[in-house]
Amino acid sequence: MDNKKIMVCDDDQGILDVLQMLLETEDFTVFTEINSPDVINQIKQNSPDLLLLDLWMPLLSGDQVLKQIRQDEMIKNLPVIVLSASVDGSDIAADAGANAFVAKPFDMDDLVLKIKGLLMN
């Protein structure tokens, strides 16, 4: 599990900071992106091994971003975990093509297990 790269996209800087700090303690390399329209370009530049994606964001919602990823030949196989405080978030995430869903407020241990599970495949 040496230095896998994880990109985190959320419109809340506080969540980005917390996730970056926690994931770095798990020895992941972390990139954060607060502007959802920039995510696709960032993925292509940084080639993350996994994306953590918030569902409800201004401009482009997480499911819109995810649908774009799944239609892009270069990055369509990227594992994506969707984060959301919404009760129907898991359905929306699954419909858009997410590999996993984590409810907010998230349990960090649960999130790390899901990340490691997807990266092991």
A few lines on this structure:
This protein has 121 residues and is of the alpha/beta class.
The CATH homologous superfamily is termed Response regulator
Helix content: 40-55%
Q: What is the CATH topology assignment?
A: Rossmann fold
Number of strands: 5
Beta-strand content estimate: 15-25%
Please identify, by name, the CATH architecture: 3-Layer(aba) Sandwich
pLDDT averaged residue by residue = 95
Instruction: Please state the overall shape, judged from the principal axes of the Cα atoms.
Output: globular
Between the first and last Cα atoms, what is the distance in angstroms? 12 Å
- How many domains comprise the coordinates? 1
Structural class: alpha/beta
What low-confidence regions span 5 or more consecutive residues with pLDDT below 50? Answer: none
Order of helices and strands: EHEHEHEHEH
Describe the largest sheet: 5 strands, parallel
Radius of gyration: 13 Å
What is the CATH domain class? Answer: Alpha Beta
Enumerate the strands of the largest sheet in spatial order, edge to edge or round the barrel.
2-1-3-4-5
**Separate helix tally:** 5
